[in-house]
């Protein structure tokens, strides 16, 4: 017996049903069915595609979904309980399907494949949403990608654009006309910014892209066709020809003598991701450089040279691939593309260090192809976005154990929480004596990282990503060369707690090719990783002293050589060196290395170190604070919390003496975080203010200094420092408010009246700055513009300490102090109206009690510009925002507001055809009506 369903209301068909039974309903996989009745394993209902055709179908052919039912009965409405974005994707793909097929029929093949690609992306993104494994941020990110792709497809298929708010479709009857228009503008902007594959979708709708999207290059070694017959190490890196330097770490692949991976687990998993390549990097003259180092005999074609049990690292060949030749290809693809690299050997081994440059410049007399085989076959793929997003969108790539290969320096955007402590050491060159031999030496360098107690640090040397770290490094050997040039980069990932007190020791051995194949030690060099002042090795070349020793030297007591000078600078600081030493310096031999530090915990900057240790030099505090501006931004953001703690500690120590300099330093740091490179550190600053800031007395000095700068704006010709303070207004108020909160907690609200008085006096100074006549002073215009740009950002901070009405009074007085003329200058008029627009869009304006206070001054300035027919577009935007806010607050006035908006638009488009007098009259009339009608609510 058929009975109406209670819970089984909607489902998705999971198996085709022909409908060959009586009253059967033919269904296809993927159709959505609404269920009306059920009876012993059968359902009766209809497909949402054909709601007028009802029939029966097996219950087990349908996957049931939860739904909400309204108006139960014959005319009930069933809505699935699922994410609205998922529902939209489903219905949109069904709508696109027929249109997509028509593209092929109409021979629009290019658009056919593009739409297919976007549809596949939407299916994958929908799957991610349905998985239920995404965090809230990840879910928002996926929805953002979905909406941009939906808008792109609707645009290119000639369908209507869908207005959305927070990625979901909106009911156009519930929002204002102006909001609907803004939503369509936002969708249009997203489409224009995205490429045909829906790329560049990393930003929110309508938001400017503050942070550039990083690129990541996937390199996968598929085959090495040369049969060397020995174990082989292949290194891949990115090389900038224009600057003549490597910009990335190395990716290392170890192959056995048969050409397969030395580690069997890495079969088909020889891939690396070169991360954090900026737009600037992509425009460089980049090359993928692959160097092949074999491990075995000294001379490959001479089996007599060296006994078989002695292994030497020897250079074999090099291959290059110009990124400019392949970038366009891999940018347009979403899958890996194969490329072939031909390997060349060096004609003169002494020039091995520059073989890649010779190949790039086609100096064919300096290299030779050892075989007609192609050599290396690699595949490349270009990925975009932050690492987490790339990982989420390409799970198959990361399931292959991809090796992350970073840039040698920091990326363009330094993310908070990116903990890094890598020292990159380049083994440059050496000059050694022949030592009485008839031929030159075969020199091998061994390097160790040793702690203060002489212990060799394990796993602190990396030849390249993709392979485990090593306890020691051994260089490749150049045959019969007393002045070898290696130019080999080694990464030293030394733990931060082991960096201080550690040193590097380089041991030099001659590799004999005689029967015994001995490696005889003949000298060594060393260098500490940190200087006595606490700074690390500077990023430059270092010439190290070479000390004589022999094969019997054990280095069991490292203190015997650590007291010796390691270089010329060290020698100059050690004037009294005894002549009778165990190790004597070889004055005719030298050794060069180059270091580059990429650390978020260690610094090479003397000025920054002096600031952090200011208590050791109390007489130099003034000079130390003044030199903070010379510290690079990378160093400041690395030590942001420590620097802020130090500044407020200095302020507490002597407010009167150090207050102005601390204020200037704080302003400098705040403005530094406005740079797109460090913009991601603003949340770090916010977290510091909320959880770590402890300057309970700081608000007094910050208010005093800020007021002092504003009061001087009418006197000073150069106002650079004043403008910087104005730009930092938002975070200065964050510090002021948080400091006052801390003080109130500690003192149970003491000095509340004094604080309120100081804020009122500060706003008097703000009004004073804005009231100044700047028509004849470009400098003053810049100061006023900086203040107006920052002013709306302080409202939320003030609301923590004052009532809504009090803050509104502050704002009304400030906006009212601006000159009532529109002839200051077009740029200043725009800044003034933009500040008003941000005020209208702020949280403060959403309160009815504050709108009652702010509306008169807002409409007053709009009226002035409308009367002069200036900046009409911005004025219309402000008015539409006002209407939207009031509409959402009270739907009773919707009809009146729509009439008002229509009048304004008619006036806007036809104002040039009317006499100015009548236009001004009508606008004034309606503004007056508007004021009188709304101010009472």
TrEMBL record:
Region of interest (Disordered), ranges: 189-211
Membrane-spanning segments: 891-910, 916-935
Residue stretches of biased makeup (Polar residues): 189-200
Compartments where found: Cytoplasm
Gene3D superfamilies listed in its UniProt record: C2 domain, Dedicator of cytokinesis N-terminal subdomain, SH3 Domains
GO BP of this protein: small GTPase-mediated signal transduction
Keyword check for Transmembrane helix: yes
Domain C2 DOCK-type: 420-598
One function term, GO molecular function aspect: guanyl-nucleotide exchange factor activity
Keyword terms: Cytoplasm, Membrane, Phosphoprotein, SH3 domain, Transmembrane, Transmembrane helix
Sequence similarity: Belongs to the DOCK family.
Top-level lineage group: Eukaryota
Protein name: Dedicator of cytokinesis 3
Ranges of residues in domain SH3: 6-67
Organism annotation: Nothobranchius korthausae
SUPFAM superfamilies: SH3-domain
Pfam families, per database record: DOCK-C2, DOCK_N, SH3_2, TPR_DOCK
Any one annotated GO CC term: plasma membrane
Coiled coil residues, start to end: none
InterPro entries: C2_Dock-B, C2_DOCK-type_domain, C2_domain_sf, DOCK, DOCK_N, DOCK_N_sub1, SH3-like_dom_sf, SH3_domain
PANTHER family: DEDICATOR OF CYTOKINESIS, DEDICATOR OF CYTOKINESIS PROTEIN 3
The gene coding this protein: DOCK3
């Amino acid at each position: 017996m058929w009975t109406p369903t209670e819970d089984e209301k909607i489902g998705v068909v999971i198996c085709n049903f022909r409908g060959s039974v009586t009253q059967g309903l033919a269904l296809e996989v993927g159709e959505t069915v609404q269920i009306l009745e059920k009876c012993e394993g059968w359902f009766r209902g209809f497909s949402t595609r054909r709601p007028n055709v009802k029939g029966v179908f097996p219950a087990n052919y349908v996957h049931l979904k939860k739904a909400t039912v309204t108006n139960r009965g014959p005319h009930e409405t069933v809505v699935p309980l699922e994410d609205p974005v998922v529902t939209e994707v489903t219905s949109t793909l069904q709508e696109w399907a027929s249109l997509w097929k028509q593209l092929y029929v109409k021979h629009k093949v290019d658009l056919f494949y593009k739409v297919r690609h976007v549809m596949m992306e939407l299916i994958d993104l929908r799957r991610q949403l349905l998985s239920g494994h995404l965090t809230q941020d990840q879910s928002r990110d996926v929805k953002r990608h979905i909406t941009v792709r939906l808008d792109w497809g609707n645009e290119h298929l000639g369908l209507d654009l869908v207005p959305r708010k927070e990625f979901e479709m909106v009911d156009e009857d519930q929002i204002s006309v102006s909001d609907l228009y803004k939503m369509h503008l936002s969708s249009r902007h997203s489409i224009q910014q995205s490429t045909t594959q829906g790329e560049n979708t990393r930003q929110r709708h309508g938001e400017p892209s503050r942070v550039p999207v990083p690129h990541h290059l996937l390199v996968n070694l598929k085959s090495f066709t040369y049969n060397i017959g020995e174990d082989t190490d292949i290194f891949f890196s990115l090389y900038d020809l224009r600057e003549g330097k490597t910009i990335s770490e190395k990716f290392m692949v170890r192959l056995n003598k048969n050409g397969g991976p030395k580690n069997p687990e890495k079969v088909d998993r020889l891939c690396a991701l070169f991360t954090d390549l900026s737009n600037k990097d992509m425009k460089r003259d980049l090359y993928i450089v692959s160097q092949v180092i074999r491990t075995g005999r000294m001379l490959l074609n001479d089996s007599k040279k060296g006994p078989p049990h002695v292994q030497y690292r020897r250079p074999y060949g090099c291959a290059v691939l110009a990124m400019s030749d392949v970038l366009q290809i891999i940018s347009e693809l979403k899958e890996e593309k194969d490329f072939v690299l031909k390997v060349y050997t060096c004609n003169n081994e002494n020039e091995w260090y520059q073989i890649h440059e010779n190949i790039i410049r086609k100096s064919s007399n300096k290299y030779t192809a050892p075989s007609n085989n192609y050599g290396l076959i690699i595949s490349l793929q270009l990925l975009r976005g932050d690492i987490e997003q790339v990982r989420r969108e390409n799970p198959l790539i990361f399931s292959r154990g991809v090796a992350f290969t970073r840039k040698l320096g920091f990326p363009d955007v330094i993310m908070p929480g990116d903990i890094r402590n890598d020292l990159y050491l380049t083994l440059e060159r050496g000059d050694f004596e022949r030592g009485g031999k008839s031929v030159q030496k075969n020199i091998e360098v061994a390097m160790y990282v040793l702690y203060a107690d002489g212990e060799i640090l394990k796993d602190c040397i990396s030849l390249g990503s993709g392979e485990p770290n090593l306890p020691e490094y051994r260089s490749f050997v150049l045959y019969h060369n007393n002045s070898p040039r290696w130019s080999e980069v080694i990464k030293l990932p030394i733990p931060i707690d082991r960096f201080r007190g550690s040193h590097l020791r380089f041991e030099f051995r001659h590799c004999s090719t005689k029967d015994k194949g001995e490696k005889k030690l003949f000298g060594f060099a060393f260098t500490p990783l940190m200087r006595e002042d606490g700074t690390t090795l500077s990023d430059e070349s270092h010439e190290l002293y070479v000390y004589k020793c022999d094969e019997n030297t054990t280095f069991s007591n490292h203190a015997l050589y650590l007291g010796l000078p390691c270089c010329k600078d060290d020698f100059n600081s050690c004037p009294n060196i005894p002549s009778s030493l165990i190790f004597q310096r070889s004055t005719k031999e030298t050794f060069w290395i180059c270091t580059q530090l990429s650390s978020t915990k260690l610094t090479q900057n003397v000025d920054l170190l002096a600031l952090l240790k200011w208590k050791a030099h109390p007489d130099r505090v003034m000079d130390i604070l003044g030199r903070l501006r010379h510290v690079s931004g990378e160093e400041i953001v690395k030590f942001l919390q420590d620097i802020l703690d130090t500044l407020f500690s200095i302020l507490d120590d002597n407010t009167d003496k150090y207050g102005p300099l601390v204020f200037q330093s704080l302003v400098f740091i705040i403005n530094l975080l406005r740079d797109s490179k460090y913009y991601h550190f603003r949340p770090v600053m916010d977290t510091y203010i909320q959880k770590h800031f402890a300057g309970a007395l700081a608000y007094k000095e910050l208010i005093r200094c800020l007021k002092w700068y504003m009061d001087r704006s009418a006197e000073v010709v150069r106002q650079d420092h004043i403008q910087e303070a104005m730009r930092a207004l938002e975070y200065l108020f964050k510090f002021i408010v948080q400091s006052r909160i801390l003080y109130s907690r500690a003192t149970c609200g003491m000095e509340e009246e004094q604080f309120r008085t100081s804020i009122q006096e500060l706003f008097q100074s703000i009004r004073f700055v804005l009231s100044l006549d700047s028509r004849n002073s470009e400098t003053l215009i810049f100061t006023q513009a900086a203040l107006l740009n920052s002013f709306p950002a302080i409202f939320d901070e003030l609301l923590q300490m004052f009532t809504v009405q009090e803050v509104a009074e502050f704002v009304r007085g400030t906006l009212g102090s601006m000159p009532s003329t529109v002839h200051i200058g077009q740029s200043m008029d725009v800044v003034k109206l933009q500040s008003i627009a941000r005020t209208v869009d702020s949280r403060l304006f959403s309160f009815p009690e504050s709108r009652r206070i702010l509306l008169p001054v807002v409409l007053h300035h709009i009226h002035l510009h409308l009367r002069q027919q200036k900046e009409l577009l911005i004025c219309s935007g402000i008015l539409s925002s006002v209407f939207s806010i009031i509409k959402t607050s009270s739907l009773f006035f919707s009809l009146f507001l729509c009439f008002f908006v229509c009048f304004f638009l008619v006036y806007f488009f036809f104002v040039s055809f009317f006499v100015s007098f009548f236009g001004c009259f009508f606008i004034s009339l309606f503004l007056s009506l508007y004021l009188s009608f709304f101010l009472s609510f």
